[in-house]
Design brief:
Rossmann fold, 8-stranded mixed sheet, alpha+beta, 2 domains
Length: about 300
């Protein structure tokens, strides 16, 4: 029997060995043992064959109708069972998104639904629901020479001194067409995030691997994105801040299914105790976009000082 070819990558501080090529990711440094194994194989639908996540004796099974089943176990393995003739782009979309989110929860990390950028040697996370402008804001920073630490999924871990550290995520930005064009890019120059549905108007903007972040960076502050006619930045503290982190956890609905509710809440509280949480209100659209982003940059730099 021929041994399947394996590819070694680095993402979220993990050495990933995959039978499925993952061109979005950085290559792992040579040598070393993998933390996570991704392989192709048959995945039983479990008790409920319908879409979504269900807990199993081995971990959890994520079913994405028309795409694939993903069996995620022990924070250390993902078995991918793709549907017939499904484009690999679509399989990878959910593998590196929702399935990886389950694995991060299994490993006890705190994945935020956030983008993170490096400013003056520290990481700053911009957190919010889909459509809140996280990636558009990150694109503004990227285009001015700031490094992107994470896009959409910002995985946080705590070191021995309880400092929050952001692990490097996927080296790309994912932008809606309006945001893509609003930041001076052309849709024709970029690949769609999902193949086969022209209504899925998101595009992937790769980040140069030469400038990609490869090491953990201390998290200096978190900004919760909100909407307001008058741009403003205010402090969130106590329970309000913890609830904001809880509500903006990436795939937070999966937490009870991996038996991680207590650890997750503890991580949210730990983050709030050691890291300032701010509410950044801004007017959506591009009319005053530059000024609002510059306001956020100025505020972040004052946080570092």
């Amino acid at each position: 029997m021929t041994t399947p070819q394996a590819f070694d990558y680095s993402v979220f501080g993990l050495h990933v060995r995959s039978e499925l090529p993952l061109p979005e990711l950085l290559a792992a440094p040579p040598g070393g043992q993998p933390d996570v194994i991704i392989r192709l194989g048959e995945v039983s639908p479990g008790v409920d064959p319908g879409p979504g996540l269900q807990a199993t004796d081995q971990g959890a099974v994520l079913t994405i109708d028309g795409i694939a089943r993903y069996a995620i176990a022990d924070g250390a393995s993902i078995i991918v069972d793709p549907g017939a003739e499904v484009p690999e782009t679509n399989i990878r979309l959910y593998l590196l998104g929702s399935a990886m989110g389950v694995l991060l929860h299994q490993r006890g990390l705190l994945p935020l639904h956030a983008n993170a950028v490096e400013i003056d040697g520290k990481a700053f996370a911009f957190m919010g629901a889909s459509g809140s402008g996280k990636s558009t804001l990150a694109a503004w920073f990227h285009d001015r020479g700031f490094r992107i630490v994470a896009d959409d999924v910002c995985a946080v871990r705590f070191d021995a001194d309880e400092r929050p550290l952001v692990t490097p995520g996927l080296p790309r930005l994912r932008l809606w067409k309006e945001a893509l064009e609003g930041t001076g890019r052309q849709a024709s120059m970029h690949s769609r995030s999902y193949v086969g549905d022209d209504d899925w108007d998101k595009f992937d903007v790769p980040i140069s691997h030469e400038t990609a972040v490869r090491a953990e960076i201390e998290l200096a502050a978190v900004y919760v994105l909100g909407e307001g006619e008058v741009p403003s930045i205010g402090v969130l503290d106590g329970l309000t801040a913890a609830e904001a982190v809880f509500a903006n956890t990436y795939r937070g609905a999966f937490v009870p299914m991996v038996d991680g509710s207590r650890e997750h809440w503890s991580a949210c509280v730990s983050l709030v105790k050691g890291t300032p949480i701010f509410l950044l209100r801004r007017k959506l659209g591009f009319e005053h976009f530059d000024e609002q982003c510059a306001m956020a940059l100025d505020h972040a730099r004052r946080v570092v000082l």
